[in-house]
Automatic annotation (TrEMBL):
Residues 840-1239 form the Coatomer alpha subunit C-terminal domain. The lineage of its organism: Eukaryota, Haptista, Haptophyta, Prymnesiophyceae, Isochrysidales. This is Coatomer subunit alpha. Residues 173-201, 847-919 are annotated as: Disordered. GO terms for biological process: endoplasmic reticulum to Golgi vesicle-mediated transport; intra-Golgi vesicle-mediated transport; intracellular protein transport; retrograde vesicle-mediated transport, Golgi to endoplasmic reticulum. It comes from the Eukaryota.
Amino acid sequence: MLTKFETKSNRVKGLAFHSSRPWVLASLHNGVVQLWDFRMGTLIDRFDEHDGPVRGVCFHQSQPLFVTGGDDYKIKVWNYKLRRCLFSLLGHLDYIRTVQFHVEHPWIVSASDDQTIRIWNWQQRSCVSVLTGHNHYVMCAQFHVKDDLVLSASLDQTVRVWDIGGLRKKTLPETVTPEERSAMGPPMPDPAGSSPGGSLSSKLGKAIPNMKVEDLFGGNDATVKYVLEGHDRGVNWASFHSTLPLIVSGADDRQVKLWRMNETKAWEVDTLRGHINNVSCALFHPKQELIISNSEDKSIRVWDMSKRQGVQTFRREHDRFWILAVHQESNLLAAGHDGGMIVFKLERERPAFTPISGGVLFVKDRYVRSFDYGSGKDTALMSIRRSGNSGGPAVHYNEQENMLLVCHDTDGGSYELYSVPRDGRSSDQSQECKRGAGSSAVFVARQRFAVLDKNRQILIKNFQNEVTKKCAPPHASTDCLFPVGTGMLLLRSEERISLFDVQQRKAVAELSTPAVKYVVWSPDNSHVALLSKHGVVIANKKLEQLCMVHETIRIKSGAWDGNEVFVYSTLNHIKYCLINGDSGIIRTLDVPVYISRVSGGTVHCLDREGKVRKMVVDVTECQFKLSLHKKEFERVIRIIKQSRLSGHAIIAYLQKKGFPQVALHFVSDEQTRFNLAVECGNVDIALQAAQALDSKENWHRLGAEALKHGNHQVVEMAYQRTKDMEKLSFLYLMTGNIDKLKKMLKIAEMRSDVMGRFHNALYLGDVPERVKLLVEAGHIPLAYITALTYGLTEQAEALSQQLTAAGLPLPEPLSPAPKMLYPALPISRDSNWPLLTVSKGTFERTLAGGGGGGATADSGLGDAGLDLDDMDGGGGWGDDDLDLDGTGGGGGGGGGDPLGDDADPLGGEGADGDGWGTEELDLGDLPGGSERASMGGGYYVAPNVGMPLTTRWSRESRLAADHAAAGSFESAMQLLQRQFGLARLEPLRGAFLALAASSQSVLAPAPSLPSLQAPLTRPGGWPCVCISLGSLVEKLKAAYGLVTGGKFAEALDAFKSIMGSIALALALSRQQVAELKELLGICREYITGLRLELLRRTLGADEKVRACELAAYFTHCNLQPAHMILALRSAMNISWKAKLKRSAAAFARRLLELNPKPEFAQTARKVIQACESDLTDDFTMAYDERNPFVVCNKSFVPIYRGSEIAYSSFCRAPYLPKFKGAVCEVDGIGQVGGEGTGFSEVDADGKFLS
């Protein structure tokens, strides 16, 4: 059973599926009717007008109606669109058990405990027939799908079949066919003329003209056709087969009986036994030869009609089952029980398929078939022993060897390995196969496949089904394998997926994700889509998550369209997802499909019947977003011009991605155009839209935006439209528009705006107006002070007389030397404020017309010429004898192989313009002419002073090294702080001076002249930088030699010197940037390890535990194999001496995995042998080798995976979060928890790449 949906509620007594929508009705024992969307898992509505339990419910086939029947003796017809009951049908005298709509006619059939069956015309809202004959409760009644039959089951132990053909002909004469009308014969002549009194029928006809004689005496519109007897106790349910003349019934005798009928009789075919309590319901499966029954024994049983035996049983622990319902169009079933209901399938409907080159390989009807996309040819290749869709299909194909793996998940899981006929030749015979048990099996190499057995071990097998290798997965909860490529597997465990290297027998990458069901790799294997039940995770080949899309309904399948677009299907949509996380809908689906290939606008898929379908879809929106993501603006413009992309979704997308100017091309709605224009700062378009809309709010927003741009002409218009007088006056003040300020003063006077008048008078410096206004406002003292201050003696005297007459004292002047306040006049009054010239954006440049790449290679920094055979290690490693049997360690050495290494376009004859007809001017002799003639016959114009190269370097370069070479140390430090978030620059002082000195050459001219400086440049005119990748690699090899010789303090200084130089190194390509980053990581690991070792050597004899911990941490630094051997050997020795036998054995095993020299290996084996008898430690270290960790470079304690980590802004050394803000102990310049933009690089010609 595959449960699709489950509810928890009161006891469910009735169920009904909608014919087309994903809805199910559930009627409950408490009187509530619930309408559920089982696909979304949501309750749509509830109806609770019944009093008491509701036992029967049914949807209408085509109308928005459903009918219910309950213990309140009422039948109610509901409209789910109107969400109310339309009417009730009354007539039954006891509980109503079932109700059902007829498929074609306006009828409802109901069964009741009043021992009757009633047929109702719901359009006329009346009962058209009462079927009597049962002598106990009628438990169910239903119409036949095609024939004029009604089936009923009763507790009188019988099943009855009723013929209602007469009822149809009587009540629905329009449904009578010509054949039925001719079979009825001609109408009978009226016998009234032959008998004076007339016949009884004629007399009754005259007395009751609307009633036929048959109606008066019981009628013949519905008659019992068959009575099926055979059950020993009451029958609870009976059901017709949709196409065959079969009936199934279930009863309290715990039996399910199968009946057959023909035109004349009906008889029992067989009895199905297995239930141990009353059978509540029994139905035929609509598409398979199966019978489904449920019972009060808390089980659902599935029976094979042909074999007449049970094939599946599903049990619940505490809930009795009461009702079943089947969906006529799909393979869904529903069952109601004491605690709610479940919607389920009996088996998976997903076809077993796998894409192959140019086609798809799939399993259908026990045949392996191949479909070629080009020719459209469907070929049956061979038959297999059982159908691919039994028990959860999964197939994998090896195209090199033509081998097929078919996996089943029944009985704990199994697999079958087939050899597929070559060249598409079909074979009708069943192929021999190799079988085995395993929950999952996939191909892992050309002639190998991997199996996950029941013990959760990975078995690598050859095509003879023989085990060649056994691996333990990294997580004990691993439950599924997915293919990757040669030598790699994807392992699913709990909420994560792991990339497993079979050769190394370890996980090389992990990603946390919901339980993955399917994995789809892009054509170039650069990206992978991980499909779970409700989500799609896109990751790269290193399992680094790029994006995740969540869906509310189930995801079914998917395929890549190229390497950057993933197309997937849900139950009712085909959707897409780009690797940047953008997603959308391509089209809706009527039925679920399973995508096998996507190419442009064509989707190839399989449906649930195993048919290959081809769909043409519109991927314009997807290609538009992809082009925008890749910044292919020419293609974006072409899509805009050629397609009809529109809608708020596209506009919102462009706004979100920072392209509102592009969104303007899609919009015709003025309000939307206005919003977009304001967002992208296009004042002209915003003005046009604002004029069309003429909204105060829009004018206000336009004024604010135009003010930011200094467009005071538009600002003035906006303030005028919004009648914002204060802002308008202030705008005139700022622009020096005195004339308009005077008009504003008059407008304020006309509007009786006292404060407006005063402000405008103040802006204008109009003192008499201010005095006049203060007098009108009754502020005589203020008016007097104003007049006195600004020398208006006449007004001041008149005001003083008023104050004296009023008996008020005269105020004293505020300032002995008053100054006139008058606004300064700006230079520009009428034109808008000047703006900086801004280059066109990328999109605008593309509209106007206009028009690359890097190489990758292995840097070779990994081993830098280390030779394992010569790595005995110096005396500094402390490898003295363990005194196991008298053997000891020896000398050292190091080294190894190097790392590896025109004519003038206006010139020509007559270029002086002889043909222009100009003549010489007779100007006479000018003073000084002889002197100028002696100087060469013309004026001497001194050349402009050029820009020194050093100035150009500091102005135009984005490399800190160039600034340092130019002597501009301050700008170099600012660049370094921006790039790497550096907190301390003192350690770089020496590098700065070296760069400045090495970029200049000094030439000695004649002895009496000063030295000449000539800059040394690289291509493009930029300075030569003495710090290069090659020089750093040479230093790295020297540092490796110091580590090998055990000179740890000197090696630490060497690595720190390299790390400081990396910040100022010159990278001429993206490849070199990658190599610098790799070199930085190498230095970080070695500095961390060397600091651990040097700290360990400072500890006293009483700090034995801490010394062992530091030695153990050292072995988890990412060192070269030769140095790791020495580190493990040292840790093994220290642990052995400290009586940490378990730890010493662990280090010895790790040492043996690295294939050391024979004498090292012999010592390690002896340690393991000596420790095996007692694998215990005398004390516990803060160290867990099985839990991945990094070491905090401040406290030297492990930080285990999943814990919060703060990183250095430069070298990315890890720290505990409490050390954020501190200077990094590893590089000495970075800030813990800081951020930066990273490295910048240039190409060989000096052009900046980033």
